[in-house]
């Protein structure tokens, strides 16, 4: 079975072609055109600019993905596309491309939730340069999605049965990393730069708050933490490089602490057999290291999964993988006529 997937929910224009054979996946192509440079000077993604860039880039990204894959349209079984959540002007470009291809090539369409893409990217276990095994999921499983737009704890009770049990009440985790990075004078997106800066710095120099650490629910809040960093920084006229690094490390420790603590508490409560990390912030090695160490300390009997590093941030291969799992769970494809974008799409 061959799936061509399109992703344009935020600031990456992406198309992938993947061949699935039972538990095996061969990546025929995986093309991502990043718009980071375009949005950098604004310190965040500008939706209208993102849409224009998708419109400009998608035909060439698509052509390259199809050419690299060496497939002709007749060999493609399904067209998967990101339906939401995301920026509506950006989503519309990808959805419309999927509709046009569905009509022109007479193919069934699979609308995919972007966050499921981040979740199922966990199942990829590399076996060769372009081949992966798809690890079966042991239910109940718990996914922590931490991206620039979302922070959610998702309980997976059975194939295709996903339920949000907690989420951020204000900023997403990645957004908080980016905003704190900006406060420290780093470029956008600041998450990876902040992590680098924090290596070998003192994480206990500033005692930043751990918002909602002990609340009984599984929700998060990061905006107060960001403000605490801002106020602390305003106490100094200039920051030495050492202090800046300590700021980064102390913030990262607070954010990671809350994310890990709540995830493990949820894993304990729901008896999760697995914990999966997904979304851009899953690339953060301190988050992974802390999750592994704390789960051992607390004797949480869940296996920890995380996506291959190059597939943590937005890409279309994860959308193809999610489409595969959706089909396996019995989800029915739709016609191009029914394909819609939904910016606030929720997992259910
Ligand atoms: O999943 P993603 O590519 O896009 C969304 O769907 O939002 O996530 C991007 C986010 C950005 O906020 C970026 O700063 C953050 O992921 N990020 C990181 C790291 N790598 C990416 N945050 C912390 N540490 C990292 N190493
Ligand atoms: Zn994403």
Overview of the structural elements:
- There is one protein chain.
- With 348 residues, this protein is an alpha/beta fold.
- The chain has 10 helices and 12 strands.
- It has helices spanning 36-40, 47-69, 88-105, 114-120, 173-183, 191-198, 223-233, 241-270, 285-297, 317-328; strands at 2-7, 12-21, 24-34, 78-84, 109-113, 124-126, 131-134, 141-146, 151-158, 161-167, 274-278, 303-305.
- The protein has a 7-stranded mixed beta sheet, with helices on both faces. It has a 5-stranded mixed beta sheet with strand order 10-9-8-11-12, sandwiched between helices.
- β2 (12-21) and β3 (24-34) form a beta hairpin.
- α5 (173-183) packs parallel to α7 (223-233).
- The radius of gyration is 20 Å and the shape is globular.
- The two termini are 26 Å apart.
- The model has no long low-confidence stretch (mean pLDDT 96).
- It binds 5'-O-[(R)-(carboxyoxy)(hydroxy)phosphoryl]adenosine and zinc ion.
- Zinc ion (ZN) is lined by residues 114, 118, 147, 279, 314.
- The site of zinc ion has 5 residues, from α4.
For the sheet with most strands, the description reads: 7 strands, mixed
* Strand order, largest beta sheet: 5-4-1-2-3-7-6
Could you tell me the radius of gyration in angstroms?
20 Å
Oligomer: single chain
Compute the separation of the termini in Å.
Answer: 26 Å
Shape: globular
One letter per element, helices H and strands E, the order comes to EEEHHEHEHEEEEEHHHHEHEH
Tally of strands:
12
Ions, cofactors, ligands: which are bound? 5'-O-[(R)-(carboxyoxy)(hydroxy)phosphoryl]adenosine, zinc ion
